[in-house]
Amino acid sequence: MRLKTSLLKEPKHKELVSCVGWTTADELYSCSEDHQIFKWNLLTNETTQVVKLQDEIFPIDLHWYPKTAGGKKQTQAEICVLTSTDGKFHLVSKSGRIEKSIEAHRGAVLAGRWNYDGTALVTAGEDGQIKIWSKSGMLRSTLTQQGTSVYSVAWGPDSDKILFTSGKQLIIKPLQPSAKVIQWKAHDGVILKIDWNSVNDLILSGGEDCKYKVWDSYGRLLYSSSSHDYPITSVAWAPDGELFTVGSFNTLRLCDRTGWSYALEKPNTGSIFNIAWSVDGTQVAGACGNGHVIFAHVVEQRWEWKNFEIILSKRRTMQVRNVLNDAVDVLEFRDRVIKASLLHGHLVVTTSLQCYVYSTKNWNTPLIFDLKEGTVSLILQAERHFLLVDGAGIYLFSYEGRLISTPKFPGLRTDTLNSQTISLSNDTIAIRDKADEKAVFLIDALSGKPLGDGKSLLHKMEIMEIALDQYGSANERKLALIDKNRDLYIALVRRFGRDQKIIKIGTMVHTMAWNDSTSMLCGIQDTQFTVWYYPNVVYVDKDLLFKTLYTKDASDFSRSPHILNYVANQVTIRRSDGSLVYTNISPYPDILHEYVNCSRWDDAVRLCRFVKEQTLWACLAAMAVANKELITAEVAYAAIGEVEKIQYINMMKDLPSKESFLAYVMLFSGNVQDAEGILLRAGLIYQAIQVHINLFNWDRALELAVKHKTHVDTVLAHRQKYLENFSKKETNKRFLQYSEGVEVDWEKIQAKIEMEISKERERSALASSTTTLRSSLPSRQ
Amino acid sequence: LHIHILAESVRASLMLSSLQAMAKDPLADAGLHFDELNKLRVLDPEVAQKTTELKEECKEFVEKIGQFQKIVGGLIELVDELAKEAETEKMKAIGARNLLKSVAKQRESQQQQLQALIAEKKMQLERYRIEYEALSKVEAEQNEFIDQFILQK
């Protein structure tokens, strides 16, 4: 990826350009110390003078009113705030008319910024004050006052916090007066410029120590650049938070969000005092010290999938290379390419007006449809459909170009969605709630309605990253999530009224990704690269979890790597220095998944025998139990030496009915509640009571017995025996109460149990003769 | 030129003094003279002739002086022009010298810029190298896997 810059031969402005600001994707306003405001139209390449300001106004900063303010969308920004050296800020319309001039600070007003919803404006001055203003320019409050000038100021993603500079320090101050202020020393020199991205919540700072740094919103350093030759005079995040640019003397740098630099340009500009990204995130403009305005657009982005490699060679041209036969196709577009995504055999490209869908099988005839609003900020792909996010909403399209649904949820704010906070699979969309970061909205993809009872999935911690698995039936859809403590959890998406169980499967997980075709999950745990061959194991046999893991030393990937994708048997990882690293994963688990999905159990067992790996056997064991395939489970458990489990499986074989078998499988996975539910629904009260007795769940057993007025004596008898074995005395009041009137007679109880079991047997025999049961159990009986 | 003019002026002054000596004969004392055509003259014809000669010579002299002045004027102009030209050349030389100095500086900054670009490219190269290594490793692993697979079969 690199920047393609363009500069006019002669500067338009006579003095240094102090600030620039985009109104649309192709229109820029620039202000200079020669008092002129120019408008740059990039479509017609025209530059016109909008207005010549009065001689005493020397502009310093300019910020256009946000486009998507207050829920209402405007096609264009209409008004901007222009700060000047005379201590005033001015509200200027598009035509250049000064609507209002407000006395704000003593000395120059160094920065002015609208918040994201356009309800407030913050200004920072040479006098060290920060003031909050209403939209119309009424002073709301003076947020802070300090001894040094505030050179730059930025709003937090929710517009409830302000970040500002104080000499070498950065300060985050919430608007609420009682909330905690975060303050830290960020640079060795005076900090000149900062920016805070709303999508990824990261902070960027550049200063006179010639370094730029990336911070998270807690003030932890994520990246620090090496020292440059000149002070960093400007920094700016791209709107989607994936890239940022840094400006210095004769220097323009394009960097990844993790800090490493994609490209460096050395244009003849003088110091670049201000950088602004266009709304669609494809180009930047810089205000240069020698009167120039530099434009640069991002080209040569790359996408890779299996044997295809695509490069955005020009603004409107893509080059597709098939690595297998070196065939090259060139794709031409009518407008500038804004976003693209290549996955699942499809390339989705959005331009400012249209969406193109290519199949990797045919690059000649794309499917084209028009977009409602131009700037798509995110494309997500699943096997069957893809999702577009723009400023107005979320749209799900099929690869045939049909609009499937437009998911909606309360508090929908599309400008903060990124690939970490929204995930798509064939049947489900998961979106992390912005207002409550512990919650995840689950939406049915096909209908666009919330799943099940409409309640969102709640976790106990703030969630940082979510991902849905891509394979399998909708009922087995799983959500992997990483929380603030960097613990990895897994949850079933469709729970059918059951309690949500979010199970922890890993700790210190920095990054993760599901396989694109099977439900395998890979991640980097602390210093280990880990693959969860069968994450579902936690719902089947939690003890097996560690046996189904594949781990490998991750020191090759250096510090804080990021997993880009996990396609087939290859994981692509981006190291923190920006280099791509690939790692291979054994193909056997993939094959095993395939066999199991087609219920080819014999082949699966044969594969495991061939490979002779414990992890594979453990996976097979769990898969077999999950599919209630007891013979295979027995073989697999034998191979990994879990004797007690084989015993249990053998015991299950003798169970009298299908229901109790199901219940015991549930018990095997530790789902006592589900097991009880199955038994009670089938009317097998005795079995349910026996389950609880076996688990020493005395209270529940007695409760059931009393409720259904049966086997109270059985419970009491077992309890008595238990107490005798441990030579204890009955202390439980309820047991004392019921044991008074009941005589314990073991023979009678045994007879009753026998009767129950034979009754159950009869009933299931009757049932199996009328219906053909798919389970293997009745046939064995 | 100067010497010529000086000689002329000396000759003219000598003539004047000889004229005064000749006017001392009796007629002449009365202030009367005859010329070659025997006409009475108040002034000694010799003197008169000499005077005419002198007059002519003076005229010539004035002309010559005028010419001289013109020539000198032209010369001065020329010299002035030369001086101006010399001045501009001098300025040019100073400018060139400064430029030369700044070129060195410019080169330095250019070098610095190129160095920065080289560093950037080097970093990119390093990234590619790491990527290549990783891919080579993957290839080796895959080959190993294939070999193993064939052996086991």
UniProtKB/TrEMBL annotation, chain A:
Matching SMART domains: WD40
Xref: Pfam families: Beta-prop_IFT80_2nd, TPR_IFT80_172, WD40
Record keywords: Cell projection, Cilium, Cytoplasm, Cytoskeleton, Repeat, WD repeat
Signal peptide residue numbers: none
Domain IFT80/172/WDR35 TPR: from-to ranges: 616-762
Known role: Component of the intraflagellar transport (IFT) complex B, which is essential for the development and maintenance of motile and sensory cilia.
Protein name as catalogued: Intraflagellar transport protein 80 homolog
Organism field: Erpetoichthys calabaricus (Rope fish)
Taxonomic classification: Eukaryota, Metazoa, Chordata, Craniata, Vertebrata
Gene: IFT80
Automatic annotation (TrEMBL), chain B:
Keyword Coiled coil annotated: yes
Domain of life: Eukaryota
Keywords: Cell projection, Coiled coil
Compartments, as annotated in UniProt: Cell projection, Cilium
Coiled coil (residue ranges): 100-138
Pfam families, sorted: IFT20
Statement: the UniProt record of this protein carries the keyword Coiled coil: yes
GO CC aspect terms: centrosome; ciliary basal body; ciliary base; cytoplasm; intraciliary transport particle; neuron projection; non-motile cilium
PANTHER family in the record: INTRAFLAGELLAR TRANSPORT PROTEIN 20 HOMOLOG (PTHR31978)
Name of the featured protein: Intraflagellar transport 20 homolog (Chlamydomonas)
Gene that this sequence comes from: IFT20
